[in-house]
Amino acid sequence: MSKQTNTSTLDGRRNFASTLSVMSKDYMSVVGIILLAIIFSIGSYVKNGEQYFMTISNWKNIMLQSSTVAIVALGQSIILLTGNFDLSLGRMVAMISCVGAVLMKNVGMDPNLVILIMFGLGALIGAFNGFMTAYVRIPAFIATLGTQYICFGVAKLLTQATPIPNMPESIGWLGRGYIFDNAIGKVIPISVIMMLGVYIIAQFVTSKTKTGRNIYAVGGSPEAAFFSGINVKRYYFGTFVLAGLLCAFGGLILMSRLNSVAITNGQNYEFDAVIGSIIGGIALAGGKGRVIGTMFGCIFLITMFNGFSQLGVDPFVQDVLKGVVLVAAITLDVVRNRKKS
Question: Are the beta carbons of 206 and 26 closer than 8 angstroms?
Answer without folding.
Answer: no
